[in-house]
């Protein structure tokens, strides 16, 4: 084992931590579990112990012993029970890039053989099916069949100016499939020339990084780039913030990319989306990867305010300070109970606003919060921004609205 998974900058940043504990104050895993050992501060301390145990100089001077199997297991549990929401990074007064550090630790733990068994499941699913759920690739666009009146080409065109990159959650989870249905209908009515990739779309790669499997990522990047090049597209649209963030940070800037909220705002400004009045009071949840990750805060709110009759009430913690829904970082596969507890916090905060619905711009947030709401019969609706716009959409005379 070695420290090769960390950059020089990261090794320096570890000593910059002032132990101010602000990271623990904002951590959704800590507040939901009441377990302070899940904080970034404790994770940083555990990492220092690991690095010192490997370094000959430290071992000689400090008489460090090897880390026991039980200690490895405990440290691994702390590292992987994190949503990677980057709330700690936002709160850090010295500006440590904590999210990237957490990804490096996960990679280190995978290389060291100290990781939850579920990580192997994620790896196997991605290797076999090119998606984190292990579902058949040829079924990635099956949601089109659930539209009331899908076009004959089923959005599988040989060429198009725009590619809609659906993402694994919306492609395979029935609860989230109404999101691509809604967006496809909106794009249709707006006259956007778009296509899907279908089975040629592979996972964007975020679950790979979150599982510590960075070495596998390049194959996915190369495949997805080539699939879009074959379509002759100029623009790629994502409804999933994690897919969007991956393309912003890790893919070459070969295409113009938009999150759906940004693309919808442009269409609204061009008066290409005809809207009717919808009487609804909503609050807006900023997804971690779209808000803190990509700094997209204004466009979703502008879209909401563009819909006649919709009133927006802000959450007490919003924009950069918005709390995670519990659905990130592969947490649901590692610790479903903790993920649900974090979701409960989020839903209760939304309920406190008095809004009829909580709107977000992330298919995973919709799935996580809706699951909690339905299981616990909570009186609030959860929807994606595309679904809200679709609710107000006035179809063209020759088109029928999708469900």
Query: Would you tell me the overall average pLDDT?
Result: 92
Compute the number of structural domains: 3
Low-confidence stretches: 57-62, 399-403
CATH topology of the largest domain: Rossmann fold
- What is the terminal-to-terminal distance? 54 Å
Q: Give the helix proportion (percent range).
A: 40-55%
- What CATH architecture label of the largest domain applies? 3-Layer(aba) Sandwich
Q: Helices and strands, in N-to-C order? A: HHHHHHHHHEHHEHHEHEHEHHEHHEHEH
The CATH class designation of the largest domain is Alpha Beta
Description:
With 403 residues, this protein is of the alpha/beta class. It has 3 domains: 8-115, Fumarate Reductase Iron-sulfur Protein, Chain B, domain 2, CATH 1.10.1060; 120-268, Rossmann fold; 275-392, 3-Layer(aba) Sandwich (Rossmann fold). Helices cover 48% and strands 8% of the residues. It contains 21 helices and 8 strands. The chain has helices at residues 8-13, 22-26, 28-33, 40-54, 56-62, 69-80, 87-91, 98-112, 117-129, 168-172, 178-189, 206-210, 217-230, 241-249, 260-269, 289-293, 298-306, 331-334, 336-351, 363-375, 385-392; strands spanning 162-165, 194-195, 235-238, 256-259, 280-284, 310-314, 357-360, 381-384. The strands form 2 sheets. Strands 2-1-3-4 form a 4-stranded parallel β-sheet. A 4-stranded parallel β-sheet has the order 6-5-7-8, sandwiched between helices. 48% of the residues are buried.
